[in-house]
Amino acid sequence: MQNLWTMVGPKDALWIVGDFAFGQKAKDREWLTKLFAKLPGAEKHLIVGNHDLEPTLALPWDSISHMAEVKDGPDNQMHILCHYPMITWNRARRGALQIFGHVHKNWKGSSNSVNAGVDVWD
């Protein structure tokens, strides 16, 4: 969580690219609520992953979706967010970067996609 606080400022939007919690704790509403309260950022968005169960979906996210197109940075770089890696996506050949999770350490990505999993990047 420390690395997350280093990178996400109090005015930033935080996007979780699926699998917010896993295992028995993912079913514990009290634990999930406490974990959610520790997240940095002014906005918190969830891209639904295969392990995001009803208790996670019930948290007060600013948005919940299966995929999102988000512009970021001074040049409005387009990012396509999906829990699952895709072969292609909107604007893939025009500079859009796909950010995904799901595959853990099995694949970090390619020239225009990146695995944002905490198990890959700590």
The helix/strand order is HEHEHEEEEEEH
Task: Tell me which CATH architecture applies here.
Answer: 4-Layer Sandwich
Largest sheet data: 5 strands, mixed
Number of domains: 1
- The CATH class label is Alpha Beta
Number of strands: 8
Mass-distribution shape: globular
Per-chain topology:
Elements lengths: L1 H6 L5 E4 L12 H9 L5 E5 L6 H4 L5 E3 L1 E6 L4 E6 L14 E4 L8 E2 L2 E3 L2 H4 L1
Parallel strand pairs: 1-2, 2-3, 5-6, 6-8
Antiparallel strand pairs: 4-5, 7-8
Walk me through the structure:
This protein has 122 residues and is an alpha/beta fold. It has a single domain (2-117), classed as Purple Acid Phosphatase, chain A, domain 2 (4-Layer Sandwich), CATH 3.60.21.10. Helix content is 19%, strand content 27%. The protein is built from 4 helices and 8 strands; from the N terminus they run H-E-H-E-H-E-E-E-E-E-E-H. It has helices at 2-7, 29-37, 54-57, 118-121, and strands at 13-16, 43-47, 63-65, 67-72, 77-82, 97-100, 109-110, 113-115. The protein has a 5-stranded mixed sheet with strand order 4-5-6-8-7, with no helix packed on it. A 3-stranded parallel sheet has the order 1-2-3, with no helix packed on it. The model has no long low-confidence stretch (mean pLDDT 94).
